[in-house]
Amino acid sequence: MEFPSVVDLLNQQENELLKLQSLLSNELELLKTRELSSLEQAAAEKEQVLIKINQFDQAIKQHTPFVELQQDQKHTEQVTRIVDLLNDCKKQNELNGQIINNSQIAINRFKGMLQRSINDNSMTYDQKGQTSISKSSLGVKA
Fold first, then answer.
1. Is residue 58 classed as helix, strand or coil in its secondary structure?
2. What φ, ψ does residue 51 adopt, rounded to 5°?
3. Distance CA 121, CA 137 (A)
4. CA torsion 92→93→97→100, rounded to 10°?
5. What's the pLDDT tens digit per position in 77-110?
6. Which residue has the higher pLDDT, 132 or 74?
């Protein structure tokens, strides 16, 4: 059984990082357009790509130490591209995470406002059985 060369591993790693970069850009668009149904599928795809990236990382480490790859003239350019791609992906992922966090905060605020609104209003029925909402916080005390 023949093991992949370090060049093959680096190429595969770079390709997976390009896929991840594309997925993260797509995730950002899904977040902007609030396409939540598609977001779940995108997250699953991202997870699979991250698993592959980790596997290639481990294979590359076993083949050649990172410091050697950075210093080797044959690999310097590609290793630099890979590191730059990884940094770009990290930044994009942080931005997406921040958008998700801000959305969650906004949802929680809205939920709190709704809860307060529900608590401030009470529903009653009139003599004809029709619902009537009355404001309980009018400041009038009986």
1. helix
2. -65, -45
3. 8
4. 70
5. 999 999 999 999 999 999 999 988 988 888 888 8
6. 74
Sorted by sequence, the CB contacts under 8 Å of residue 100 that are 6+ apart come out as 31
Distance CA 95, CA 40 (A): 18
Q: Which residue has the higher pLDDT, 44 or 72?
A: 44
For 83-137, the DSSP string reads HHHHHHHHHHHHHHHHHHHHHHHHHHHHHHHHHHHHHHEEEEE-TTS-EEEEES-
Taking the C-alpha atoms of residue 98 and residue 104, their distance in angstroms, rounded to an integer, is 10
Q: How far is CA 77 from the centre of its chain?
A: 29
- Whether 57 contacts 13, CB under 8 Å: yes
Listed residue (111, 96, 91, 95) closest to 31, CA to CA: 96
Rounded to 5°, the CA angle 41-107-45 comes to 10
